[in-house]
Automatic annotation (TrEMBL):
GO terms for biological process, alphabetical: amino acid transport; peptide transport; transmembrane transport
UniProt-recorded name of the protein: ATP-binding cassette domain-containing protein
Positions of the ABC transporter domain: 7-252
Any one cellular-component term (Gene Ontology): plasma membrane
Gene3D superfamilies: P-loop containing nucleotide triphosphate hydrolases
Entry-linked PROSITE patterns: ABC_TRANSPORTER_1, ABC_TRANSPORTER_2
Keywords, alphabetical: Amino-acid transport, ATP-binding, Nucleotide-binding, Transport
Membership in a protein family: Belongs to the ABC transporter superfamily.
Role of this protein: Probably part of a binding-protein-dependent transport system y4tOPQRS for a peptide. Probably responsible for energy coupling to the transport system.
One of the Pfam families matching this protein, by short name: oligo_HPY
Length: 340
């Protein structure tokens, strides 16, 4: 990338007080990511790894313990009042569940109009025109404007949520599993709509998901997160073709094949065991308690981040060998032996 990132997260840490006295939940730990204008970046990992907390911290729904979020080079934590509100408009969030993210007592028109009203730059007539324009963009007839959101289907509700997030012309969208709560029959429709809008409007997007196939289709780059840390990141095609962290390899191998005959015959490395508690994360490499390649060195200190290509990094002592394909078979054999 030759131009400056529109969003830059530096060494972000988010911790919550635990019910255990004196303990903290290490939800996000020393995470750094970059998002460039007009691109879609994927953020993947198991449930509970900290993906949603990272997204919520970026937009200010959760308070960062340390680190910085920079929008166009400006540290958001240094702003307050009107300046902070202006910057926050450029960062919008699309929630996973369209049934809980919209107010059932509002009509569709009121839902979108509220965002425009808070923005404060539109007159009444302009808000009305903008609402109609947004409904057209997301494929909803203007007739739904007077219907309550509770009367809509899940797919329609998520289209309204997308329209609301686009109302103030954001530069960055944080999309937290935006289609996972929808029926399979309409998931593709909403996803195709989202991709078209993102391309037409040129908005940058951090796409949080556990559906790796969906991320591969949408994202140009991918970050892989495990227990609060980024363990690997790189160009989408390269990361999927040459995964170089054992967790990434096993995560990809866990994706079921569509053809049941292929699924029955495959023997890829599968994830074993449960993700450790973020209250007491393992020392050294956090994946070592589930990793078939773990050695004593992995427990001693955090693994180095190896630069495998100009844009591909992986935090594992074996990353160079995995990138070269020398240990991929060992990961598979070790994982299969552990499952016996």
């Amino acid at each position: 990338m030759t131009h400056a990132p529109v969003l830059k997260v530096e060494n972000l840490q988010t911790r919550f007080k635990s019910v255990q006295r004196g303990k903290y939940v290490h939800a996000v730990d020393d995470v750094s990511i970059e998002l460039y204008p007009g691109e879609i970046v994927g953020l993947v990992g198991e449930s509970g790894c900290g993906k949603s907390t990272l997204g919520r911290t970026i937009v200010g729904l959760e308070k960062a313990t340390s680190g910085r979020v920079l929008l166009d080079g400006v540290d958001l934590s240094s702003l307050s009042g009107a300046a902070l509100r202006r910057s926050r408009r450029a960062l919008q969030y699309v929630f996973q569940d369209p049934y809980s993210s919209l107010n059932d007592r509002q009509t569709v028109g009121e839902t979108i109009d509220e965002a425009l009203l808070i923005d404060g730059t539109y007159s009444l007539d302009e808000r009305s025109r903008r609402t109609k324009e947004l409904l057209d963009q997301v494929g909803l007839a203007n007739a739904v404007k007077d219907r309550h959101t509770r009367e809509l289907s899940g797919g329609q509700r998520q289209r309204v949520a997308i329209a609301r997030s686009l109302a103030v012309n954001p530069r960055v969208l944080i999309c937290d599993e935006p289609v996972s709560a929808l029926d399979l029959s309409i998931r593709a429709q909403v996803m195709n709509l989202f991709l078209r809008l993102q391309k037409d409007l040129g908005v940058a997007c951090l796409f949080i998901a556990h559906d790796l196939a969906l991320v591969r289709q949408a994202a140009s780059r991918v970050y892989v997160m495990y227990l609060g840390k980024i363990v690997e990141h790189g160009p989408s095609q390269q990361l999927y073709d040459r995964p170089s962290h054992p967790y990434t390899q096993m995560l990809l191998a866990s994706v079921p094949e569509v053809d049941p005959r292929v699924e029955k015959l495959r023997s890829g490395p599968l994830l074993m065991g449960e993700i450790p508690s973020p209250i007491n994360p393992p020392s050294g490499c956090r994946f070592r308690t589930r990793c078939p390649l773990a050695v004593d060195e992995c427990a001693g200190k955090a693994p180095p981040s190896h630069r495998l290509s100009p844009d591909h990094n992986a935090a594992c002592v074996f990353a160079p060998e995995l990138y070269g394909g020398k240990r991929s078979a060992l990961v598979q054999q070790s994982a299969l032996a552990a499952s016996v």
